[in-house]
Amino acid sequence: MIIELGHFSLVLALVVALVQSIVPMVGAARGSAALMGVAKPAALLQLVLVLTAFFTLMYAFVTSDFSVVAVYQNSHTTKPLIYKISGVWGNHEGSLVMWVSILAIYGASVAAFGGNLPPTLKARALAVQGMISVGFIAFILFTSNPFLRIFPVPENGMGLNPQLQDPGLAIHPPMLYLGYVGFSMAFSFAVAALIEGRVDAAWARWVRPWTLAAWLFLTFGIGLGSWWAYYTLGWGGYWFWDPVENASFIPWLTGTALLHSAIVVEKREALKSWTILLAIITFSLSMLGTFIVRSGVITSVHAFAADPTRGVFILTLLAIAIGGSLTLYAIRAPRLQVGGLFAPISREGGLLINNLLLATGAATVLLGTLYPLVFEVLTDNKISVGAPYFNGVFIPLMVPLVLLLGFGPRLAWKRGDLAGALARVKVAAGGAVAMVALSLLINGAASVADVGGAIGLGTAMWLGLATLSEWADRVKLTKSGAFARIGNLPRAAHGMTLAHFGMALLIAGVSGSCAWKQERIQTMSAGQSVEIGGFTITFEGVKMVQGPNYEAGQATMLVAKNGKTVTTMHPELRMYSDPPQQLSYTNVHTTFGADLHAVLGEAQGATESFTTRFYYEPMTPFLWYGVLLMALGGLVSLTDRRHRVGAPQRAAISTGAALPAAAE
Amino acid sequence: MAETPATAPAPKRWPYVIPLVAILALGGVFVKRLLDIETGAVDPKLLPTVLISTPIPDFDLQALPGRGQALSRNDLNGEVSLINVWGSWCVACAYEHPVLMEIAATGEVPIHGIAWRDEPAKSLGWLAKNGDPYTRVGQDPASKAAIALGVVAAPETFLVDKQGVIRYKQNGVITRADWEHKIRPLIAQLKK
Asked: For residue A165, is it left (φ>0), alpha (ψ between -120 and 50) or beta?
């Protein structure tokens, strides 16, 4: 009965979404406040209905109601509670319900907190949100109903893939979806602005916090997924350029570009149609990212069951959403009034290059991801595009971006002072050179990896120092009263510093682990030792242990450094019962600046010797600190007063006439 | 000049159409791919296995108690056969089972079973309840053969030729369409 309530709620939500997508749009066209006013209660009601459906499904999972197909296929009574809950979104149907739930949360937030938005823009943006809801709720109800029942009721469920039973992975999809779906706000505002025919500084100010929220969740979500792979897969890698990873990374790149170009719209009323295009593309890529792997069009190890009938529905939806918005763009964007032209040496000039590099980066990743598919469709031959392509094309694009990143915030708006800015990054440049020299001295220059690693660390040092010194100069850290100035500096400026510094740490982590990662794979019997990364690991043997839903061979390994025991590691080889699956549990010993992974493999024959693998990951922890700092930077920036106060309505009458021309 | 005066010529329109054209081209590729999947020309589930066109790895499995007909590598010589990896715990196998019964009924190809990670009594009970399509059945409780064959998840089915070389691998359930359009024609070809 409760299950049917959830189903019924979702059907009602579809009806409400239909009303939300039509009535306010008509109201905005006719200038009727009453019709436009429908948007707010509709968005709030939709949230209530969709959440009812979501929590109903969660109830079914928590109570192990196996009469529900989705529960039967993805859950099991012996599963710990947290994985029963995460089982809700660990499958195609449930994850879609979560997707529309988050969409409803964003929509309702705009309805509730968007009081200072111009009524027509708000009505139109909410109507566009309604349309997205209609599409995806219909998709759930017609092709992927999570409330489907089976009879006779099975005694127990089929269980969840044990590899997915991990706390990091349990919260990974919600974070990722908060990011993906969050970009729907920028999309809706962009489409609404195209319909209105007006984009101005105020519009950019309204769009920015939503983009920022989406960006920070996506950053955190991608980081979490990568961290999960690093800690559990037992190969020490964190990024594989898999289609599903790329699908989340491409919108991250365009979303990052959008975040920066919106600043230019806000400050200089320039890059308007480009920003609109980025908003449309970022959400389009997000939808593509969430759904393309489920249509069976692209195969991936991460994919949920692929089903071509769903594929047709998804593609139709995407065609309407993306094709429709881009058609509107083609018609309306040429009429958007252009703002001031600007000088190449200026803050906006720097942000433009940032956008070009990020967009090119996104395009190269997209190309590499889709190329095998396009190639196969056109020629019937299979090829694969792997890490060498991505590393070879993507990294050279990112190096100038990072160099610019240390420099750009120093340039003033409109007319930057190149010589002055150069003078002020001397310390950072010197630090970078010193870092390269130091790395070459310590690690040598014997291989390409050593040189590449040194350059990577130098780049990280450059960005880190440049970012910190820019912040220090801005608050005049060395002069009295610095504390007050730190407090007065807009939160957005602190956020930028944190995010850029996080990027520096990330680069350091990636460089270190790429260049100097070590691995040892061998057969060991009790008493034998292996040296790796300055550690001596002694294998003490394996005993059988019983876990909640698995039994495992657990190894004991003593880790010593300079003759002193540092820690004892216990990697396991687990055999899960429901479903039966063998899985190795990697034990990771982390120090502040490096990680040591130990993996237990199969027993060799009848003897007491086992395959063991060890990985030494120098500097990789910096990668995770970096991701956290970037997300934190987004969060700090989001709390900036300007976002809460909101922009005065139509702050600037949009043409460039109000602004002095930068270049004649 | 900074601003566009009202009398300026209309801005160029074509650059703004590029994104639309690009996405339409991409959409065309997606549609073609979906049609290919629909018609069976392309199978997205087909993971390329390194074992295709290689001799099947050596294994020697015991018979289920009381059933007889054990399964080893040497039993596969001289005839085209299907090897189906299954278990009584495997729900997807229950979906597949009626199709295996139909294939067995045609008499065109012997199906051998590998009872993977299962207790012999449960395997026997399952076969008694659902019917037994297998010629030989080997029990593989410790995944000896399954690991050699690179089995990821049951059911998986291998088509082996007269020389014991793997010619095709089905990941997941064999549907009637798989049998009619892929496996059956391949068997006919291999028998020649």
From this structure: beta
Domain ranges of chain B: 60-191
Q: Say yes or no: do domains A1-163 and A518-620 share a fold.
A: no
Per-residue DSSP letter, A292: G
Amino acid at B166: I
CA-nearest residue to B172 within chain A is: A305
Of all residues in chain B, what percent carry a pLDDT higher than 90? Answer: 22
pLDDT at A640: 86
| Bond from prior residue into A152 cis (ω within 30 degrees of 0) | yes
A81: pLDDT strictly greater than 90: no
- Nearest C-alpha of chain A: how many angstroms from B98? 19
Amino acid at B156: E
A134 Cβ neighbours under 8 A, 6+ residues apart:
A14, A17, A18, A21
Which H or E run includes A467? Answer: helix A448-474
**One-letter amino acid for residue A121 of the chain:** L
Distances A379 to A50, A269, A370, A403 between C-alpha atoms, Å: 44, 46, 14, 40
- Pick one of 1.10.150, 1.10.10, 1.20.120, 3.90.75 as the CATH number of A1-163: 1.20.120
- Given an 8 Å threshold on Cβ–Cβ distance, is A323 in contact with B91? no
Least confident range from A187-196, A308-317, A323-332, A346-355: namely: A308-317
Q: Compute the nearest-CA separation of A280 from chain B (Å).
A: 10
Tokens (6 digits) for A306: 């692929």
The pTM of the full predicted model, rounded to 2 decimals, is: 0.81
Task: Please name the amino acid found at residue A594.
Answer: A
Q: Which of A587, A585, A589 is nearest to A565 (CA)?
A: A589
What average pLDDT does range B79-92 have in this prediction?
Answer: 86
Q: Can you give the residue ranges of every domain in chain A? A: 1-163, 518-620
Count of CB atoms situated within 10 Å of the CB of A522:
14
> How many whole angstroms separate alpha carbon A359 and alpha carbon A401?
11
Give the minimum alpha-carbon distance from A603 to chain B in angstroms, rounded to a whole number: 12
Q: For residue B182, which amino acid is it?
A: K
Please choose, from the candidates B149, B64, B153, the residue with its C-alpha nearest in 3D space to the C-alpha of residue B115: B64
Does the ipTM surpass 0.90?
no
How far is the CA of B72 from the CAs of A51, B67, B76, B83, B119, in angstroms?
55, 15, 7, 11, 19
Position A182 pLDDT exceeds 90 = yes
Q: Please judge whether B17 and A315 are an interchain contact, meaning their C-beta atoms are less than 8 angstroms apart.
A: no
> Class for domain A518-620, per CATH?
mainly beta
pLDDT in tens, A437-448: 999 999 888 888
How many other CB atoms are there within 10 angstroms of residue A279's CB atom?
Answer: 31
How distant is the Cα of B6 from the closest Cα of chain A, in angstroms? 10
Class at the top of the CATH hierarchy for domain B60-191: alpha beta
The DSSP bridge partners found for residue B157 are B84, B170
Task: Point out the least confidently predicted range of A24-28, A267-271, A360-364.
Answer: A267-271
Looking at A289-293, A294-298, B32-36, which range is the least confident one? Answer: A294-298
Q: Which of A388, A387, A456 is nearest to A246 (CA)?
A: A387
Distance of CA B108 to the CA centre of its chain: 19
Which residues on chain A are in Cβ contact (under 8 Å) with B30? Answer: 292, 295, 297, 315
Interface of B with A (CB under 8 A): 1-4, 10-13, 16-17, 19-20, 23-24, 26-27, 29-34, 36-38, 42, 44-45, 47-48, 87, 89, 91, 117, 143, 153
